[in-house]
Write a structure and sequence with these properties.
- The chain is built from 18 helices and 13 strands.
- It has 419 residues and is an alpha/beta fold.
- α17 links the parallel β12 and β13.
- α2 packs across α3.
- It is globular, with a radius of gyration of 25 Å.
- The chain starts with a helix and ends with a helix.
């Protein structure tokens, strides 16, 4: 793996000068995997790929495949194995051999030097992630724990602690620690998931807790918002030090520049080429657990489509988009087998652009969709449970769309809808 080794030894990993080397390393890796992994070779053969001319010709393999099947190269002796976080209920496995570990270690040291992460000055660590314990094999936990060795650690505290067979966040304890660390002469390093960090900062802001941390303190974030996709914040929400202007979200720009977006291409990608067919998008928010989510998603798709046809005329087709945790859920796949599944569609904003009607419950997606002034119906069949569990930023009765607590009520709201 000559080019892989050279790539990870590049002096400046942020320079464009390594693009050509990156392409060579990817093609080298492709050839190695094809000759050492029967599963990968069969995937490439089925796609008619034998020797791609560039990296863009490589097959894209959904991560869901790795959650269902372990695929490893033959002849490799793994030194370290780790899993994904398993927020969908399934975990994928990744293994590192000696060569891969050495390459990764070299790049970690180079990046940490460029970012001035290495220091002899001791510090406190606040990890916005899982607390390390013997039964946790996730990669994110291992890497977070490893990163606490960039400087001598005075303390390590985690927002997610393991109790009674599961993890739960303790914001109050972490806030008390931050207040205490703000009075220390040593810096504090925050690291981990951006979602929990954002929620923590939001709680502190609500409580009017504003602190100046010791010199040398840092915030280092990594990971996604999978469990909290509806509440994802952009970088400005983290980095802005001045006045925050409520002037919209960049993700919705395409709704105001729709003439530059190929709607026909979007419709073709979801299998609705006929422009005369109207689209209703059903996109409920995620509950605390997969079981609770599946239980409340009892929408009668056929009946809803029938009512929409009676009200608005023409033909309708229903798209269903659930939380990524529910991708591939057998029960939901059967329940909505007559609908078009778009849970794994990359850009939900494109779906909102081509949809004519939206049905959701409490998801913030309704505010994005409202910019187009199209019909929205709120099916909230577990309002009290959500109110008790999470609460809402504003009373539901003030939301400007028809609300229904059962299916018959929903059909009536559709029939009575006025533009």
């Amino acid at each position: 793996m000559k080019y892989r080794r050279l790539l990870f030894w590049v002096k400046d990993p942020y320079s464009d000068s390594s693009d050509e080397l990156f392409t060579k390393a990817v093609k080298e890796n492709f050839s190695y995997c094809v000759s050492h992994c029967d599963d990968y070779r069969r995937i490439c053969e089925n796609l008619g790929i034998s020797s791609p001319s560039d990296a863009s010709g490589l097959p894209v393999i959904p991560t869901l495949l790795f959650k269902k099947k372990q695929i490893f190269n033959k002849g490799c002796i793994p030194l370290i194995k780790a899993t994904s976080s398993g927020t969908s209920g399934r975990k994928s496995m990744v293994a590192f051999d000696t060569g891969g570990l050495l390459c990764g270690l070299k790049m970690v040291m180079r990046v940490s030097k460029l970012r001035n992460l290495l220091s002899p000055v001791p510090c406190h660590y606040i990890i916005m992630g899982y607390k390390h314990h013997r039964g946790n094999k996730t990669a994110v936990t291992k890497t977070a724990f490893g990163a606490t060795f960039f400087t001598p650690a005075l303390s390590r505290n985690y927002i997610l602690t393991y109790k009674k067979g599961g993890y739960s966040p303790d914001f109050d304890r972490i806030i008390n620690l931050i207040v205490s660390h703000s009075r220390s002469r040593f810096p504090t390093r925050f690291m981990g998931f951006p979602a929990y960090t954002y929620f923590l900062l939001r709680i502190m802001d609500e409580r009017k807790i504003y602190l100046k941390m010791p010199k040398g303190s840092r915030i280092m974030l990594g990971g996604g918002w999978k469990q909290f996709y509806a509440e994802q914040a952009d970088k400005n929400s983290f980095y802005s030090h001045g006045e925050i202007l409520e002037c919209g979200s960049p993700r919705n720009d395409l709704m105001f520049n729709s003439d530059r977006v190929d709607k026909d291409k979007i419709r073709h990608s979801i299998g609705v080429d006929d422009r005369t067919v109207k689209i209703v998008l059903y996109a409920p928010t995620f509950r605390r657990t997969i079981e609770n989510s599946v239980k409340v998603y009892d929408l009668d798709a056929d009946r809803v489509v029938k009512e929409l046809r009676k009200k608005f005329g023409g033909s309708f087709v229903m798209l269903v988009r659930f939380h990524p945790n529910l991708c591939g859920n057998t029960q939901l796949d059967i329940l909505y087998s007559d609908c078009i599944q778009v849970t794994d569609y990359v850009d939900v904003q494109e779906l909102l652009l081509v949809a004519d009607v939206l049905i959701t419950d409490y998801s913030s997606i309704l505010w994005d969709f409202s910019l187009q002034k199209k019909p929205v119906f709120l099916y909230q069949n577990d309002e009290q449970e959500n109110l008790d569990d999470r609460g809402f930023y504003s009373p539901l009765c003030e939301w400007p769309y028809p609300r229904a607590h059962n299916l018959e009520n929903l059909y009536r709201k559709i029939a009575e809808f006025e533009e």
